[in-house]
Write a structure and sequence with these properties.
Two copies of one chain form a homodimer. Chain A has 349 residues and is α/β, with parallel strands linked by helices. The first copy, chain A, folds into two domains: 244 residues, Alpha-Beta Barrel (TIM Barrel), CATH 3.20.20; 88 residues, Sulfite Reductase Hemoprotein, domain 1, CATH 3.30.413.10. An eight-stranded parallel β-sheet of chain A has the order 8-7-6-5-4-3-10-9. In chain A, strands 11-12-13-14-15 form a five-stranded mixed β-sheet, with helices on both faces. The longest helix of chain A is centred in the middle third of the chain and has 18 residues. The two termini of chain A are 33 Å apart. The mean pLDDT of chain A is 88. At the A-B interface, strand 4, helix 8, helix 9, strand 11 and helix 10 of A face strand 4, helix 8, helix 9, strand 11 and helix 10 of B.
Chain lengths: 349, 349
């Protein structure tokens, strides 16, 4: 699962592409003028490890709010621009280190040249973000209805213009709601261009549906070495988007954000309440070394071996619970004592 | 993503393998002797579309409970057997159409031959289920510490024994807690054997972590044509396991269980409360044709195109909400009227 080589770009000194870690992004859910709500969202996102934060900038009326955000935010900002090139210029004047423009809805070529010129002057990274939902129908026609190819053609038109102006501080992205079309488009883009790829499945939706669809789609691309920065698009909080993104990277062994938790699904065989154990341990995971594996097992089938093979483990037995650390039994307790025992052990690490 | 060809087996006339659909399984979470709780769990699982149900059978004391379950259950049962071959014989006497045995903990070769002989007589399918957590250390040694290879060696030993007795109504599975090791083991098994593969990531754990890890791991295998029946192992309800399994298959376009919901992640640009719209529509998804795509969009960037391209769609505009059906506007309403309007439209389909 080694990443394909790509160029790299720097957004506020953070490298994206090449051998830099795959970044986890999100997008602000509240409008720019709700300054207090935004700073609270940024704070939570920073705590959870969000590395790049996109924000919709739909109107020049919000210019002062964007100034404020760029000044106060502890995460690099990417202004999301549609329709009007003047918004891109204003965002760069606000000090945004990166902007995303959508070639599907910005027709004015002269405006694009002005944007490129200012981006060069200010060292701003431009993401060309193409989306199946806002693609001109001409691309679908040229691609004979093949959505993946239509996305690639739209990116290509834009990149040609950027290359004509010798601008290469680019990130590209092409997203569709379909996993298959998104995978195909990005496989082609990785073959065609050296620029870092932002990947995701667009509008994946709410709850379980969105989480699973995003996990499946993003993992298929990453497993082929495709993707330098990811965003999970959920009808859910931005913090949840970041957490899902991190879990995807961790599941693939690409990045490690916290200790790994292995816990049995429980069945009729269980000796202890695994859910209770997991609830007792999960909040403490962040305090354990992130290269640790923590096992919580309900019975003696896979229990003792998983638990003793883990850096820290708990297994249910006929007489209660056994605690392991790196293969050694470090304690035993009764079922009634579990909650307090787990707490005291984890505090002792 | 076409499946690799494999043999097929039949459990109560349900085909697994070959060109049959990838099946979605789960495992009962409550002990066999809690008959009422079990029947209630089976009913919920049947409603949500569970196709095969594994149940722990850890003691001969539970034989009458297993008799009862096999008689009453509306989903085919697979008895999960560890340690003691007599349990496998008893499960087949109870009428279980399939059993799972774990070669890691059943040492008695004579007992295995008796099991095979009875399985032949009764047309019972045997799943050989190997799990990283209960594998004999000799396999790890032979595999020089390579977990994937150790899993394959354990399966191989068992299959040799089955083949010596001319028994081929087999499903095989090899699971580890690591996505990489599980993928590697199953890639090898698919190359080595023609038997249907049951796949999953073992002990994936609770919540987001378990859902994402299972989605990533199972999707990587399925995308390579590996997997004939899946189980998502979560520290969560069995119904949730089935739902996640179905979402994985649907995201990959392998099977379709319900209308697809596309909904925007919302940003500062949104014109309407997308979450409210999604909540109004989601419960009704099951009533819509399952090949439909339903789009719920918050603004005019990707909104109207996604919504008008979908079979049924809603997009926020400056003046309220527009409803589309197969590309045609079928209604408009104000933000205040949305909930009741959605309800009346969906009831009208």
């Amino acid at each position: 699962m080694k990443k394909h080589n790509s160029r790299c770009v720097f957004i506020n000194k953070m490298g994206i592409g090449d051998n830099y870690p795959v970044r986890v992004e999100s997008m602000l859910k509240v409008p720019l003028n709700r300054r207090d709500a935004i700073l609270s969202e940024v704070k939570k996102l920073k705590e959870v490890g969000c590395e790049l934060l996109r924000v919709a900038f739909p109107s020049l009326d919000l210019k002062q709010d964007l100034d404020y955000l760029v000044k106060e935010a502890t995460i690099p900002i990417m202004a999301d621009i549609h329709f009007d090139g003047n918004l891109a210029l204003a965002a760069m004047e606000s000090g945004c280190p990166s902007i995303r423009i959508n070639p599907g809805n910005m027709k004015n070529k002269k405006a694009l040249r002005e944007i490129i010129s200012m981006a060069k002057d200010k060292g701003v990274v431009i993401r060309i973000g193409v989306n199946g939902g806002s693609l001109a129908s001409s691309f679908y026609e040229k691609a004979q209805g093949d959505e993946a190819l239509a996305l690639v053609l739209a990116v290509k038109e834009q990149i040609n213009l950027m290359q004509d102006e010798d601008f290469e501080d680019l990130i590209i992205s092409a997203k569709a709601t379909s996993v298959k079309a998104t995978l195909k488009a990005n496989t082609l883009l990785r073959q065609l261009y050296p620029y870092p790829l932002h990947i995701g499945i667009t509008e994946a939706g709410p709850g379980l549906h969105g989480i699973v669809k995003s996990s499946v789609g993003i993992a298929l691309m990453l497993s082929q070495g495709i993707g330098d920065t990811i965003r999970v698009s959920l009808t859910a909080s931005s913090v949840e988007e970041v957490k899902v993104g991190q879990e995807i990277l961790q599941a693939l062994g690409i990045r490690r954000f916290r200790a790994d938790l292995i816990s049995c699904p429980t069945c009729g065989r269980k000796r202890v309440d695994v859910n209770m154990l997991v609830e007792a341990i999960e909040p403490a995971l962040g305090k354990l070394p992130k290269d640790w594996t923590v096992a919580v097992m309900g019975c003696e089938v896979n229990g003792p071996k998983e638990a003793s093979g883990a850096d820290f483990g708990i297994a249910g037995t006929q007489s209660g619970v056994v605690f392991f650390q790196k293969g050694k039994v470090i304690g035993r307790c009764s079922v009634e004592e579990i909650a307090s025992y787990v707490k005291s052990i984890i505090e002792g690490f």
